[in-house]
Write a structure and sequence with these properties.
With 306 residues, the chain is of the alpha/beta class. It folds into two domains: 208 residues, Alpha-Beta Complex (Spore Coat Polysaccharide Biosynthesis Protein SpsA, Chain A); 81 residues, no CATH class. It contains twelve helices and eleven strands. The strands form two sheets. The protein has a seven-stranded mixed sheet, sandwiched between helices. The radius of gyration is 19 Å and the shape is globular. The two termini are 38 Å apart.
Length: 306
Amino acid sequence: MLILMGLRNGAKHLEPQLASLLTCGLDAWELRVSDDRSRDAGPQILEGFATALGNGPRRVLMTEGPGRGFAANYMQLLANLPEVPGPVALADQDDIWLPDRLARALRRLNRVPGRLPAFTFAARLDWDPETGRMTPSARMKRRPGFANALVENIAFGNTIVMNGAAARLARQAAPLAQGIYAHDWFLYQLLTGAGALCLPEPRPALLYRQHGGNAIGAGGGPMDWFERKLGVLQGLYALRVDAQLTALERCQHLLLPENRALLALFRRGRAQGPVGRLRKLREAGLYRQGWQGNLGFWGAAILGKV
């Protein structure tokens, strides 16, 4: 079992996360860490953790990151997977895993024949350490799928676990996924687009620590809502969608034919005027999970901000 972790200046919260890996329910795993030019004691903490593990079935391998942000850091880890990988999990540097989270994920994935790509992602508890407040992440209201993944990410990267066949797809696509906004969104798009079985887990897998240094936070407050809407109006959402679509187009040979067609339809629709755009996006059957998300998406579509 491989666990991939991107590291950058994570010393402040790293030790509790590393301790929680020991409760994941598996006796053997390898933690592969890509250190993206940290300027704190994070690498030294990892070295100490590796020493404490000794020569047993759990070990740590640390490499140097590309220095181009968190998404590129994770894509480099995926690109460097073995040619025939086993199960692969993603981990953040500042969360706390709940007990047996990997054992539970593997039980779900082991129901699938090994030749078929499959992945799971889980709910999480958005955790404010200062107040102790824990808020469950939003429930999934509709089935996951490529038409959802094109416009929304519901597969939290810190909860994703892939079987070997899905990890092989990720390894093939990773060198082509330059310039993406988010690695987990790309994995959700790639894997659903390639026909991988998606096995979401409603039970929370971890405490998602909220702090000022989150690359992407939970964003549940009124100010977060306002900033997201302002970002849409400023074209930020459209830029992110474009970056993800461009990467998907580079590896569309990995997608099912019907999903290649859907990707092309979405791209054509985005380039048209208001009436044609709405017609094409409706034809594509794109959807977000909740009515508020759908309302926001179609509002952005009317304004040409998708």
